[in-house]
Structures are given as structure tokens and as C-alpha cells.
Amino acid sequence: MEGGSSYDVVIVGGGPAGAAAGCLLGGGGHRVLIIDRATFPRDKVCAGCLTRKTIRLLERIFGTPVEALRDAGAVDCAGTGYRLYLNKDLVLQGSPEEPFYFVRRERYDHLLLKRAEDAGAVVLQGDAVISLDMDKNEVVTASGRRIGSRFVIGADGVGSMVRGHFPPGCFDREEWRRNTAIALEIFIGRDELRLADAENGTPLHLDGQTYTPMVFLGDIFPGYGWLFPNSDRIVVGVCGIPQPGSSSLAETFRAFLSGIGLTAFADRRPVGHRLPYGSFLWTPVYRNLFLTGDAGGFADPLLGEGIFYAHRTAELAAFAVHRELAGSGDAAEIYVALLGRHVYPELDCARRLRDAVLSGLKIPLRFPVAPFVRMIGPHLAEAVHGDRSFRWFRRADGLHQEIRMPPSLPI
Ligand SMILES: Cc1cc2nc3c(=O)[nH]c(=O)nc-3n(C[C@H](O)[C@H](O)[C@H](O)COP(=O)(O)OP(=O)(O)OC[C@H]3O[C@@H](n4cnc5c(N)ncnc54)[C@H](O)[C@@H]3O)c2cc1C
């Protein structure tokens, strides 16, 4: 770490959001410090699914095509097609030209953080930011460092300390809590799976398609379940918003595992983490603090896709901060305007679609979900991949494109 301890931008958190912001701002010639309380490689509870729009984003932010991610072991495997189940019935399957990829987060996050460092960001690991001195524009770390910074980017995940410094009135904390899910996962080795299959004497419900990513709607309300492939194991998980009077998510998970033929693993102890599930902040800026990724609640409320939104919101925040540092605009205004154009409409539509589908599954007579999903199926898959928008499934056009405007042009 440099002496003097004063930066243009301090980024709290070095996960997908922090690494992206660090890479772009460091590459843009600014003095940037990323601080993470963990020492990398560190793990993060996640199913690690990457969509096509994420692959494109990785190429342009980090200059890292998917082949390079594979060579570095960050991308572990590619899925074969996809399947969507509603109340255990297979309603949709397909084989998109480009597959879904699955990453191991400890390797993926480490690689991207190194890319940010190579681009010029200074990285401080193993020291948590414990508070922000808003009067002096300083961040204070657990080891007692005080570091001055013109901007602070909160990329510190769902339990964000930076968000905790937003005063009451900036966002509705109760609303945030109501739209934050809990996610649980277990990992099943492929050898274990084969053994359980042989012992049962019957093929698993999954009929051997264990390289096909599967999503299950209807078992958890509101929420969903998944089975995703890795090369040496499968990742099975559920996510849901706890409802008063309902059974615990751990019990629901056990029932879910049995329901998909994995009873042999129903007692395995899951790992868990919170996941933004429609909790995004409409104004994720307060003074010189900018929230990105999970810290701002930016994950897709339909399928919980957060890696893309972490990179994307970081890209937009970095652009906005860069503009103000270059003397051509107000970063807060620019960031909120860019989110309004490129992020909020998608998250809002995905949330409405989720609510319609899930409530239809609960009260089937009101809304025939299965025919509806079959009808929109191909468009839905393209929207998840980023080729279409969730807004009326029109073509995505410039939705996920790079924001590349000369500083003098209005956005
Ligand atoms: C079970 C589960 C499955 C998921 N599956 C998928 C999936 O398949 N695909 C997908 O796209 N998304 C998935 N997600 C969501 C995805 O994991 C997150 O959206 C993503 O990690 C958000 O990235 P981030 O950089 O905002 O935060 P994080 O990845 O949480 O990184 C935050 C970083 O900040 C650091 N930090 C926190 N507090 C401090 C502090 N005070 N000081 C310094 N450092 C700090 C942490 O150590 C961490 O490194 C899943 C989530 C869960 C829980």
C-alpha cells in the first residue's frame, strides 16, 4: 500500500463489484484502493452461474475471454442446455448456442482482483473497513488505518457496512429486509451421486442429466431451487424469503432434496448466505458514497443472478465517478441516470414477472402459469442471457452495452 494514504477512490470489498470498479478506475489512471477484509483466495457462497451477457461484460471490463477464465481454472465447466420445472413438471428445456458457464468463486474472484491490481488499483487484503468518517472523508479500518478518499464505492456485499452509513430516509430498511432472501446450498460429489444412485436401485429423478443446469419454481414461495453442474460435483440449493408461519427454509430444503430424488443427501448440512431478491435501492448514493452489487441490492429478482449486476453496476458507478474526477459532470446524477436506463427497468420487470409466476403457481386457477411459461419460454431464456430485455421481451439492443461517451457529451 502506498504511503500518504489518500486516494481518489476507496472501494470497500474486492468481490465481483469491487474488482470491476477497481479495474476500470485504476485503468483510467485514478488513484484507487480496494480494501477487503478477507485474504484472497476466499470463498463466497454462490452457485456460480454465468450468463452470456456476463461473459461479454468480462471481456470488456477485464479483457478476459471465457477461454482465459477456463485456462485459469476460474470457469469450472459449461452446462449442457437448461431445464425449468414448475411444481416438479418439466415445462421448458433448451440448448442455447452459448452455454451457461459455472465458476468456482474462490478462483474467479481471486483472478479478477488480480486483474484490477494489474490495471493499477492498489489492493489491501485482510483488513476490514469498520467505519466511515464522513466529516473528514476518511475510511477507518480494523487495524487502525485512516485513509482519505474523495469517493467511496461500497462493494461490500449484502451486509454492506457502507450502506449502514446511509441515514434513515435514504432507503426503507424494512422494505430491504422484506426483499432479502436466504439461500442455502449443498455440494454433492459425482462419485457420491453415482453411489446413491446404485444403492437406490432406481435412476434419480434427474435421469442422469447432471450437467444440465436446472431451475425449480413452485417448491419454495417466494423463491426457487436449483441444481447446477460443476466438473466434480453438483451444486443444489434453494433461496427464499422467510414467511411468518411457514416452515423453516432448512426444512423446505430437505423436502426439496427428497422431491428431486436426492433424499440420501437431505441431512447434509448446507452453507447459507443472504441474497438480494428485489431489494435494490432506487438511490444508491449518499454524498460521496456509491453502492454497487449486492451492497445496493442489485441482483435479478427472478433467478438471483448477482454476478452480472455486480460487474455492471460497478461499471456504471466507475464511469460516473470517472466523469466527475475528470471535471465533466456530477457522479451521483450520472450514476442514477445510468441505472435508470440500463438496470432498474430490467430488475423491476423481472420482479413483476417473478411475482406473477409465483403467485400463479400458488393459485393456479387465477393464472395458467405452465402454458404461459411455455409460450414465453424461448424469449425468457434469451432475456436471462441478455439478448432480450425483460420489458416485453423486446430485443436488448443497447441495454447492456458499454457506456462509452466523450466526457463533454450529455448522457
Ligand atoms: C447461494 C447463492 C447462490 C448464488 N448463485 C448465483 C449464481 O449462480 N449466479 C449469479 O450471478 N449470482 C449468484 N448469487 C449472487 C452472487 O453471489 C452475488 O450477487 C455476488 O457475489 C455479488 O457480488 P458483490 O461483489 O456485490 O459482493 P460479494 O461477492 O459478497 O463481495 C463482497 C466483498 O466485500 C468484502 N467485505 C464485506 N464487508 C467488508 C468490510 N467491512 N470491509 C472490507 N471488505 C468487506 C467481502 O469480504 C467480500 O469479498 C448467488 C448467491 C447466493 C447466496
What are its keywords?
7-stranded mixed sheet, FAD/NAD(P)-binding domain, 411 residues, 8-stranded mixed sheet, alpha/beta, binds flavin-adenine dinucleotide
Describe the structure.
- It is a single chain.
- By secondary structure, the protein is of the alpha/beta class.
- The chain has a domain at 6-78 and 100-175 and 278-356: FAD/NAD(P)-binding domain, CATH 3.50.50.60.
- It has helices at 16-27, 52-62, 66-71, 105-119, 173-178, 190-200, 249-259, 307-325, 331-342, 344-362, 369-385; strands spanning 6-12, 32-36, 49-50, 75-78, 82-86, 89-94, 101-103, 122-125, 129-133, 138-141, 146-154, 180-189, 214-217, 223-229, 233-240, 271-276, 285-286, 289-291.
- The strands form three sheets. Strands 1, 2, 8, 9, 10, 11, 17 and 18 form an eight-stranded mixed sheet that branches.
- The protein is globular.
- The model is unreliable at 405-411 (pLDDT under 50).
- The site of flavin-adenine dinucleotide has 38 residues, from helix 1, strand 2, strand 12, strand 16 and helix 8.
